[in-house]
Design goal:
The chain is an alpha/beta fold. Helices cover 46% and strands 15% of the residues. The protein has two domains: 12-58 and 155-320, Rossmann fold, CATH 3.40.50.1100; 59-149, Rossmann fold (3-Layer(aba) Sandwich). The strands form two sheets. A six-stranded mixed sheet has the order 1-2-10-7-8-9, with helices on both faces. The protein is globular and about 55 Å long.
Length: 329
Amino acid sequence: MAIASGAAGLGISSIEQAKARIARYVKRTPLELSRSLSERLGTNVYVKYELFQKTGAFKARGAFNKLLSLDDHERGNGVVAVSGGNHAQAVAYAASVLGTDAVIVMPDNTPANYVKATRGYGAKVDLRASIAECFDAIEGYRTEGRAFVHPFDDELVMAGQGTVGLEILEDCPQITDLIVSIGGGGLMSGVSTAIKSKKPDVRVWGVETVGADAMAQALDAGKPVQLPAITSIAKTLGAPSVSDTTLAIAQQNLESVTVVTDEEAVAALHLIAERLKVITEPAASCTLAAAEKLKTNFTPDSHLVLVLCGGNTSISDICGYPHASSDTK
């Protein structure tokens, strides 16, 4: 695997600049060795608890980096974003902290807890019939002068997410492998660029769920593929397609993308709750599900980091998830 240069403008320098820019606004989340997961997988397993981030997911990093990079005039005109999940809350929160007006365009099947939280941060929510219609609505808001904060296809957003990678390197310099979730690919792009720029031998493994596997399909096709619908319960992985930029970074930096079922992600969610005592999203627990499938690639001397990227799951959602045994014996 080649050293990541990332998108034009996305590199280790821009990620380090993002770290300094957003430091006062985000949490430095913990990374810990998990004895139970290490024993289960037969290697050294560390967990990056990014679900303890502001708003419950990594997205605050990219949102703050983008908004802080706007000038006073641009922030004065307000911002607009599209999201059915964590990006919505992150942009709404960052805008409230920085005194910027925000509109978040969300599909009307967004879980109620996400809509309530987004409004709770002071943003106006514009509900549309589908994620495609949400993106179609953006141009109207841009003509009003609002800056668009893309959920993943923005180098400033990617650089903000890449600060997760810098923290991982600081806390686990012996890292050999990393498993990271992929929605549109912003987190994967930033984190893989940060880590492989400083330690190119680290293997980065992507994971998606069936029904939200835009990157796996794009890698197979050699170009972005538009998903007709997001059918996975992992709604926060629900990008209808990846971008040319995130696809190129995946092609350069990833060993592979493992696609797991919703049932496998839920089984991993149960195991994480029982062993690590935290509640994740399926979009985060799928990293453990992928590790189970990939475990023959790891040795007792490997140092594997799982990024638990978010924890914005309601109890009602969990009760409605498909049942699967977590095999915790």
